[in-house]
Each structure stands twice: as C-alpha cells, then as structure tokens.
Predict the structure.
Amino acid sequence: MRVLKDISALNSWRRNQEEMALIPTMGALHAGHMGLVSKAQQAVDTVLVSIFVNPTQFNQSSDLDSYPQDLQSDLTQLDEAGIAAVYVPDYEQLYPHGYRFKIAENELSKRFCGAHRPGHFEGVMTVVMKLLQLVRPEYVYFGEKDYQQLQLIKAMVKDFFMPTQVIACPTVRDKDGLALSSRNQRLSDAELNLAPMLYQTLIDDGDLESKKSRLQSLGFQIDYLEVYDDRLMAAVYLGDVRLIDNVPVAGKFI
Ligand code: PAF
C-alpha cells in the first residue's frame, strides 16, 4: 500500500491509474468505513482512501481536539484490506491560503445539522471539493449515515459540473442497531448501552412527538428529529457526544 503524503506523490501515483474510486475519511476507521472500502473494491480496480481531520468543519475547537485519531491503526486496517493507496495530507497542503476560499450553499446546508453547527457544511463541502479536484476520481463513496452531507455533496458535484459519480452506501450498524461512527468511541459504557435506543426509536411506530418524548425520557438531548426527503433524521446528544442517524420513512409522516 502506498502512503502518499504530498501532492506531488499523489499526482505521480494518480498518473498511472485508470478508473479509480476515492473514499474521503477523517480516520478513526471502523467497520462503516471498511464497508465503503469493500463496496468500492467490488466495483473499481483501484481505491484511494484519504485521511484528513478537516479543521474547517468543526464549529467547536473542543470537538476537534477530542476527535479520535489513530493513524497507525487506520493504515494497518487499510493495508490488510488490500487498499492501493492512502492520501494523508496536512493542513498547509489542503489550505495553502488558510481558509480564504470556501464553498457555500444557501439552502439545505442551513438546516438540520447546519442549523446547529454553523459553518460545518461549508467546511465539509470545501474539503471535499479540494480532494475531488486533486484526485479527480471517477467515483467517490459516502455513507448514508451522514445523509445531509451526502445530499449536499451530490448537489455540489452536479452544480459544479464535476465528472465524479457519487456513490451512496447504506449505514453500517452494530448488531443492536447503533449506527457506526468514530464518535461512538467517546461514549461511556452506560451511554453505549443506551445509544442503540436512538435507532430503535426512529424505526418504532409512533409520531414525531412521541418519539421525541421517548428519547428525552431516556436521557437523550435532542438537536432535531425531523423528516426530510423521505428520511426521518435525528441528531441527539448523549452526554457531550453528538450522534446522528436517519432511516427511510417513505410516506409515513405525510
Ligand atoms: O464524513 C466525513 O468523515 C467527513 O465529513 C469528510 C467527508 C471526510 C470530509 O472531511
């Protein structure tokens, strides 16, 4: 596996590849990321994973500081999975002028997670735009767990006439239903026992108000629980850990 640390190494590696897929990540890889890896490997010969904890998408420095990082374990997992190459840039490479230029969107990015995390999606779209421009992959893979992010990136790629195809993959869950997320590592044992109730509440019968009361009585603090685009989407806090999830609900809440 090639570990590419700078743009010139990335460019010379890329020149020798034909069709390829990019999987952008912020590291702390788990089975959800590895699910994207294996889906991409089944479809495309060459898969590149990028690992970059993107500071511009964190609206709170404490969240950035506590974001889990373990590059060695990430590289071992990717190597064992037979990944062709990993791109691990630093901040100066991706932001040569600091955060001077950014991608902004004026509708969906202001709602749901965007309303609670000002600037978050500008940071996400900006770094994804930079990675797509640098790598120019035929395909880019994202999980449906970050449904709002996925929709924004699909729209951005279309609006800027980018040649990359965005591939969406279903959320990977623990046996108990908890959506896999790097943030789960920060849950205490008690919180980990409770966390699957988020998914359970989303899929159980009941209207939005009863779901909200159930989550609150269990100890979740709700940022939002709303239907968008035939999805029931939620963001909640357990202690200081923010969890998001969504499930398809076609026609249920009309
Ligand atoms: O979903 C993530 O891990 C990040 O938002 C992404 C897409 C890698 C951009 O930093």
User: Anything to note?
Assistant: The longest strand covers residues 221-228. Residues 24-26, 54, 57, 124, 127-128, 146, 149 surround pantoate (CB under 6 Å). The beta strands are 2-4, 20-25, 46-51, 85-87, 139-143, 165-169, 221-228, 231-238, 241-248.
